[in-house]
Amino acid sequence: MENPVKIILKKGKEQSVKRLHPWIFSGAIRKIYGSPSEGDIVEVFSDLDEYLATGHYQIGSISVRIFSFDRGEPDFAFWSAKIEKAYRLRQQLQLAGNSQTNVYRLVNAEGDELPGLIIDYYNGIAVMQMHSIGMYRIREQLSEILTRLYGNHLYAVYDKSESTIPRKAGLEVKNDFLLGDQHLATVTENGCTFRVDVKEGQKTGFFIDQRDNRNLLSAYCRGKEVLNVFSYTGGFSVYAARNHASLVHSVDSSAPAIELTDKNMALNDIPSGVHQSFCTDAFSYLREIKDRYDLIILDPPAFAKHNDALKNALQAYKRINQAAIEQLRPGGILFTFSCSQVVSRENFRKSVFAAAANARRSVAILHQLTQAPDHPVSIFHPEGEYLKGLVLYIA
Fold it and tell me: String of b and e for 123-152 (b: at least 16 CB within 10 Å)?
């Protein structure tokens, strides 16, 4: 690292950095010595010229994503140590090397002190998503680190950053393999089997963050008639069917997702009479199912990705939850989620409260849920807690 650009903060703005928050906002900067390009490594100093942190510069409201609060050379050994630390945590979580679960998140951005970087492992295929140009620039190094880490347990590394890389940098980013070319994986999660297409699937291919919540669902399914709304490739549906639900229906507006749901059911030897899928609009389907189901799962896509969409998103959560609460049989169970980062846990709960009040049903909270522990949240960066969930009993 040769003479990194020096960024000086305004007086008092160093406090959040000293509390180890990994972002520097543009409004906190007093002066920049030099003209950094998007992705350049910069050093951050207080107004008294005290070194604070090192990170990647970017254009926008978040000007620096901090990857180290200690001065040093961010070389190959530095990044290797970071990823090896993340791997050791997954070993402690009994994920790495687990024959019953061979799909997990290896790196969760700020949660693993690697802001701007996501790495998911799919039984031999690693999928990387970069959310910063700084991380994108070292993608070849990251691929080499993964190859050394996994050895013969890794046969493909796929860079899936086309939709996540900041556009202001002006780079023409295309999804591509950095190692191998295998894009289909058969993975095992808590003994359930899934076919994952890392190229065509949403996010990195599968919603790994719901693993523990799918497992919790298992305890509520025996003898129940279950509806999985926004089912994607049928993760919750497979768990329900394997855990003795009497009937499982999957609803999604994506024909390819429904097709993969049916394939996943076959992979798990689910009898044809137990499961049926419907390619249709979720809101429309929910309006026509009065007293048909004992248990409903609502796991919609992010209704709000930015603060300017928050109000409409909260209304959408209220509408979809009200429909489900109104339609559930007495004594029914609702698993409901929001994966919108800008929707706080409190706001989500308020939307569900309003839905229950409008439906005029007696509703009790049984569980409050979040993402699986291989999606850790830094205590210094609470913004990383994006997945919120509630399990409700509807009398």
Answer: bbbbbbbbbbbbbbbbbeebbbbbbebbee
CB-based contact 237:248 (threshold 8 Å): yes
Q: Would you say residue 195 lies in a domain?
A: no
Alpha helices in 193-309 (DSSP H): 211-217, 235-242, 255-267, 282-286
Whole-number Å distance between alpha carbons of 179 and 129: 15
**14-35 pLDDT, tens digit each:** 999 999 999 999 999 999 999 9
Does residue 365 fall inside a structural domain?
yes
Residues of the domain holding 153: 76-185
Residue 40 is part of a domain; what is its CATH number? 2.30.130.10
Q: Phi/psi of residue 5, each to 5°? A: -60, 140
Number of Cβ within a 10 Å radius of residue 108: 26
d(CA 20, CA 32): 21
Please report the pLDDT score of residue 379 as a whole number.
97
Q: What predicted TM-score, i.e. pTM, was given to this entire model?
A: 0.94
What pairs with residue 56 in β-bridges?
41, 65
Residue where one domain finishes, among candidates 68, 86, 102: 68
User: Would you say 22 and 114 are in contact if contact means Cβ atoms under 8 Å apart?
Assistant: no
